[in-house]
């Protein structure tokens, strides 16, 4: 079994692992929509690139959308004015693994650099994640995260999807069967292959089970450092879709494939550690019996003061960072609020509350070392690099500014508080979220956050997504108006 645990540390190590059994290598980077964009390279070309700064990769991957349509207007990073010039693709040797379902071909992720300055490209998902990690390091902190994905599965193929025009798809299993030990036996080989091949591929899984909904599975990826977590999250999607093709299954990480059923979440767990590896969100041993004195309320009394500032920072800026958490038109249809689907649409928090946007996981329900925050806003369609970066950048901003909690927790709120303004609501559409993020005074634009270059480029990509949606004529419109209007 090969994984990133066996990654080469030097160029000589790299030559050794590629010495005998391969004549080609697969590489991939990530675009703004979280789509892997890659190629096969000959071993000779790959080794040449690995021994230098990298290799050229067409910048159009940051100039077109999820379906390869060029963006509606010129953007900063990739455009016709510069001829879609090459970016520098820098091979990250630490990401080495082999793809078990592709004859164990060696695989590496790349990060994209500015070809002139050799600096991380700010709109490259791995680039902004590295910038985020560096900011935490400057505060002598390390970012750790975990992601849980829910995803529907259909007994379809890419060909049948097109033939059916993506309508009337057959779910993998019928009915609502969360945590079922029976439903997994109906597609036992597929269910186990996801778990087993993930381990071979260096994507560690903590838990894998059925979730409520026809053909829905949920997988919790093992907690690790934030960049590795984002890599694992994006590669888990690649793995699951690849395994699905072998079994005649199409998994979807679309946030809301059915209007009348729960959507697919991308719940994200986060914490910070100090130089010694200690979880700095945890209270001291002396505070375990009564909680921290000076805590804003009982819901946060088993969080450290630094964790409380981190939480307050997320609450303060989450609305300005929504396109990084919920990047698609469809994603906002998942955020319906209420108890039924546990998909929050308000700026709320609470101890062990799955109805809140931020769930506090702390003693007494877990040991201090497991203290963390679960951000429940993102759907499974998130770009994990942008979502995790947004969470940590906002939280670190809260620590630096010592932001205080200004709203009560869910346990102290009533249904009337949404009406009287006590509870602030999140943007309800990608259009509204993008407009808010791109305002001159947006927190996303601040120094130490995403900055103007990122906001202008990424905001332009979201404006394009809205434009394409606004120009589309949907089946709903045709059915509603074609005869009676």
TrEMBL record:
The keyword Protease does not apply. Pfam families: Gln-synt_C. SMART domains: Gln-synt_C. SUPFAM superfamilies: Glutamine synthetase, N-terminal domain, Glutamine synthetase/guanido kinase. One of its GO terms (molecular function) is glutamine synthetase activity. InterPro entries: Gln_synt_N_sf, Gln_synth/guanido_kin_cat_dom, Gln_synth_cat_dom. Transmembrane segments: none annotated. It comes from the Eukaryota. One of its GO terms (biological process) is glutamine biosynthetic process. Gene3D superfamilies: Glutamine synthetase, N-terminal domain, Glutamine synthetase/guanido kinase, catalytic domain. Residues 125-485 form the GS catalytic domain. Keywords: ATP-binding, Kinase, Ligase, Nucleotide-binding, Transferase. Belongs to the glutamine synthetase family. This is Glutamine synthetase. It comes from Gymnopus androsaceus JB14.
């Amino acid at each position: 079994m090969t994984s990133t645990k066996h990654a080469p540390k030097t160029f000589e190590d790299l030559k050794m692992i590629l010495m005998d059994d391969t004549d080609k290598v697969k590489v991939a980077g990530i675009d703004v929509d979280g789509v892997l964009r890659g190629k096969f390279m000959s071993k000779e070309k790959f080794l040449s690139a690995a021994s230098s700064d990298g290799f050229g990769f067409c910048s159009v991957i940051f100039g077109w959308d999820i379906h390869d349509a060029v963006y509606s207007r010129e953007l900063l990073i990739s455009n016709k004015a510069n001829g879609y010039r090459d970016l520098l693709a820098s091979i990250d040797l630490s990401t080495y693994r082999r793809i078990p379902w592709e004859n164990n071909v060696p695989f590496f992720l790349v990060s994209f650099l500015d070809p002139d300055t050799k600096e991380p490209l700010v709109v490259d998902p791995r680039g902004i994640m590295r910038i985020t990690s560096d900011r935490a390091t400057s505060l002598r902190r390390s970012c750790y995260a975990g992601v849980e994905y829910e995803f529907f599965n259909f007994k379809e193929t890419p060909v049948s999807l097109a033939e059916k025009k993506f309508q009337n798809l057959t779910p993998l299993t019928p009915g609502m069967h969360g945590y079922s030990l029976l439903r997994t036996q109906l597609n036992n080989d597929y269910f186990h292959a996801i778990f087993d091949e993930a381990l071979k591929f260096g994507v560690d899984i903590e838990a894998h089970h059925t979730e409520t909904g026809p053909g829905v599975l949920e997988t919790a990826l093992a907690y690790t450092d934030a960049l590795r977590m984002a890599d694992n999250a994006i590669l888990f999607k690649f793995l699951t879709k690849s395994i699905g093709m072998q079994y005649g299954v199409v998994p979807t990480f679309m946030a809301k494939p059915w209007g009348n059923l729960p959507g697919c979440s991308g719940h994200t767990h986060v914490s910070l550690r100090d130089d010694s590896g200690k979880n700095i969100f945890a209270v001291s041993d002396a505070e375990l019996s009564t909680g921290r004195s000076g805590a804003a309320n009982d819901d946060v009394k088993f969080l450290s003061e630094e964790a409380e500032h981190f939480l307050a920072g997320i609450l303060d800026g989450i609305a300005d960072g929504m396109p990084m958490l919920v990047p698609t038109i469809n994603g906002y249809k998942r955020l319906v609020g209420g108890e039924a689907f546990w998909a929050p649409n308000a700026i709320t928090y609470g101890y062990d509350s799955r109805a809140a946007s931020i769930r506090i996981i702390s003693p007494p329900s877990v040991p201090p070392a497991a203290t963390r925050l679960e951000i429940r806003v993102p759907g499974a369609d998130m770009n994990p690099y942008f979502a995790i970066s947004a969470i940590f950048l906002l939280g670190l901003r809260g620590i630096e500014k010592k932001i205080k909690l200004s709203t009560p927790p869910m346990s102290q709120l009533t249904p009337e508080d949404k009406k009287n303004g006590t509870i602030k609501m999140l943007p309800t559409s990608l259009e509204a979220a993008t407009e808010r993020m791109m305002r001159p005074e947006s927190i996303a634009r601040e120094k130490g956050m995403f900055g103007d270059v990122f906001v202008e480029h990424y905001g332009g990509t979201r404006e394009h997504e809205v434009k394409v949606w606004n120009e589309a004529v949907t089946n709903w419109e045709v059915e509603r108006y074609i005869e009676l209007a």
